[in-house]
């Protein structure tokens, strides 16, 4: 079972998800803020395991124009239980910098 709440108004978007899975409660709280000029800040905190630790990520994206974008995210997984699945976008632990080009 689970519940998802989502909010979006102007530059702000946020979601909260909670679910019961395999006799434990898992939750995610994630959001973005459009800073303008092609920049978006993003952050999230989640607990999707049996421990009490909360994983998190913080970062941003920048639209370079012409179909190109840049993303930089720092994600923390204290007990290394999430592998490459931190947050809805499934970020890797540590710092990730990614340039994307569309042709």
What this model shows, in words?
By secondary structure, the chain is mostly beta strands. It has no helices and 7 strands. Strands 1-2-3-4-5-6-7 form a 7-stranded antiparallel β-sheet, with no helix packed on it. A hairpin with a 2-residue loop joins strand 5 and strand 6. It is globular, with a radius of gyration of 15 Å. The chain starts with a strand and ends with a strand.
How would you summarize what this structure contains?
The protein is mostly beta strands and 103 residues long. It is 0% helix and 66% strand. The protein has a 7-stranded antiparallel β-sheet, with no helix packed on it.
Rg result: 15 Å
Straight-line distance between termini: 41 Å
- According to DSSP, the number of beta strands is 7
Strand line-up of the largest beta sheet: 1-2-3-4-5-6-7
Largest sheet: 7 strands, antiparallel
What share of residues are in beta strands? over 45%
Number of helices: 0
Share of helical residues:
under 10%
* Shape call: globular
Question: Structural class, from secondary structure content?
Answer: mainly beta
Low-confidence stretches: none
Series of H and E elements: EEEEEEE
Q: What is the arithmetic mean of pLDDT?
A: 91
